[in-house]
Each structure stands twice: as C-alpha cells, then as structure tokens.
Design brief:
This protein is α/β, with parallel strands linked by helices and 481 residues long. The protein is 42% helix and 15% strand. The protein is built from 14 helices and 16 strands. It is globular and about 60 Å long.
Amino acid sequence: MAYLQSMPKSETIRLREKHVGAACQLFFRSSPLKIVRGVAQYMYDETGERYLDCINNVAHVGHCHPHVVEAGRNQMSLISTNNRYLHDELVILAERLVKTLPEPLSVCFFVNSGSEANDLALRLARIHTKKEDVITLDHAYHGHLTSMIDVSPYKFNLPGGPEKPEWVHVAPVPDVYRGKYVYPNDSQNEEELGKLYADEVGRICKESKNKNGGVCAFIAESLQSCGGQIIPPEGYLKQVYQYVREADGVCIADEVQVGFGRVGTHMWAFETQDVVPDIVTMGKPMGNGHPVAAVITTPEIAKSFADTGVEYFNTYGGNPVSCAIANAVLDVIEEERLMERANRVGNHLLNRCEQLKHNHSLVGDVRGRGLFVGVELVTDRETRTPATAEAKHVVNRMREEKILISRDGPDSNVLKFKPPMVFSTQDADRLVDTLDRVLAELSGTRRTVANLKLEVLVTPIDEAKTESVLKTNITQSIKSS
C-alpha cells in the first residue's frame, strides 16, 4: 500500500532522471530508496518498511524530534526575516553557543550550511593574516563551494577534479593505521606518532614562512570524517597549532560533522586534543535537518573583518526560524543528556566492533570516539590492503537487513557509523550482530572460492564454476549500489 507518497516510485525516479543533475547521486543507485518519513533513529520508505539509520549525523537529536519541529512551526507562524532586525532567538543562540566554547571564542556569524561556514572562516583568516597559503589534510572534505573544493583533496584528487591551487599545501592525514606513519612500524608510542605527523605540518609552515612570509590558515576536521573516520594521535593538534601560529597563521577547527557532543566526552571534538582554535565552524547537526550553521571566532579576528568596512550580510543566516530551531536542538541535547548517551552507547558500540576483529580477518582496524566509529576492512592484515569490493557488498547486504550504513575513506573500505544521538545500546547490538553475520557470509564465500581454486589444481573444473560463487554472493550485491 502506498505510504505518504504523491506518486509511484517509478515516476519519482523518472522525474529525477529528467530534471535533476546526474552529478547529484543517490545511495543504492540501481535500486534507490524512497524515504518518506523519519522518527528518532528510524527512516521509513513509501511501503512503510522501517530502516535503522546508522549514518545520519544531520538528524542529530533524532528525525523529526517533536520539540524541534514545534519550535520551527511556532516561530514560522510569527516572523521569519533577516538579521538586520533585532530578535531574541539570535542573541540567545549566540550566547548559548559561546558558553560551550573556551575563551576567547566569543563572536558569532550565522550562515546556512557547513560549506558557507568554512568559506567564511577562510575569508576571515585571509583578512586577518593578510596571507594566502592554506594547509589542509590529505583526503579532507570541507564543503561543496568552489573555495572549499580548493582545500578538499577528497574532491580535487578525483579523476575529474580541478587542479590544486598553488596556495594550497596538503599535509598527510594523521592515520596511524594506514597512513605515512603507523603502528607499530614507526612507533609504539601515540605521542611520537602525533609528533611525526605534526612535523609534516611544521615543515610546510617553515617553507611558507621563508617563501611567502607566513601561513594564512590550517584547516582540519577535529576528527576526519570522509577521509575514513580518522582519530588523530594524542598531541597532534597541539603541536600543529603551535607550528601554524609560529608561522603567523590561524587555526580553523571544522566541527561541521563531529560537533555538538557527538564524541560524548566533550561538546566539541577539538577539546579531545586539548587545543583552542582561532575559528570554529559548525553546521549539519545544528539544525537537525534545517539549514543553519555558524562561525565563531575571537574578537581580534572579528575586528579585522569589521575594519575592512565591508558589511557581511547573509539573507537567511541568523533568521529567527533557523535560530529557534537551533535553540531547540540545544535544549534536547541538554534535557535528554545526549552527550552522556553518546559516550555510553558509543563505548558499547566500539567494544562490540572490536570483538569483530577476533571473528573476522576482514576487519583490520576499529576506531572511534562516542557515536563516531569506523571499521576498516582489509583483505590482508599484514599488508593492510583495502577490501573495497567487500565493503561495498557489506553496505548493500546491510540495506537488505534494513540497516543503513555507508563507507568512506580514500579506498572506500571503511564502514562508518554516525547515527542520530538517540541511538541505543539495543540498536548498537542489532547493528553489530547483523554485521557479524554478514561478514561471516563473506568469509564463507572467500573460503569456498579458495577451495574451488585449489580443486582446479587437482581436478579439471569449469573456470566459470570457480567464479560463480563470487558472482552469486558478491557481484549481484555490488551492482545494486
């Protein structure tokens, strides 16, 4: 029976293919989901089928949270206008956000998206430092605007991506599992690994200082998301920030995907590294699906921006409806103690995922903080070869089990979990129990294929039969994405 849809799914697909740009891709492209409703950690398709959402970090306090919906509806029924008029929701939101941050971060600019926030952060840094060179991390993604693609190797390194600008300098991502410096080859000590990676940034800073008089900015997600759920080693950001500031640059913490308590122990992920950035950007979870974002910086940097005499105006940034919704999100985080929940459930999820390593050789590494967890799949633990096809198969099989996950990283072999903060220990158990079963299926398939290939050495056998197991158990699933 049709469920909350105005047209058949086939017609929705036809109109999308006709009128929406092909670059705007769908999950499960050959058989896409039509999602028509969301409640808490669940999403429903047009038939009423329910899916456990393990990846939607935008619906931070749960899909369609009643308090957030009511706040938006109530304010929309009163007024929605620009921030050139005084309004209480805006100043209340600014004050509440500032109270969660360390000094001297105290001046807010409101925008509509994380991409806009990072674009404005870069503009603030350029005006304040009067420098151009920007240091970013390999595999980083900071937004879809042209200025952000310029500092996002995750995009400009693609075959059809634009050329990297000369003023952009790419430092190695501090991935201690499969990066430039790893356990145990380079060090058994996390702080030593952190320093090795930080020194790479220090080298760029020194070169920039000698050649161009200094650095404009270092921009990084506090925990790298699209790059593969990377947790920096201890001490990394502290040393990096020191190098950047010695080169007269400012430090930008991109909290668009990892902020608002997702790490569980702290409101902001940069706090886990014991640093204070010069600029913090936030978005995605801030509006629980409504487009609202912010940049928060120091009075000194804000003054440099104002001293240009060029007004900053954003038509929708800081409008009363967006601010009311963001205030409601903060209400829910506080009242439902979602940070505490992220810490408790996240630790449970991480521990359960660690157990998978003992059951499945495909699981090479498990890492995370709070409700930000990555499981890296490899075909060989010694060489740490990425299991890209297997990860793709797992994502599709989990969809068949009505659990939505995704994969990322430079080789698309990292299963990533960033669920709504209302995720429960029961949800975590269902996720890991199902993943355990799916990985066991894959392990069985791999063993069967290996046995068939061994049989070829003993008894003549049709080559097509040898590969049929892979085609039956893996290829069909891969094609469905």
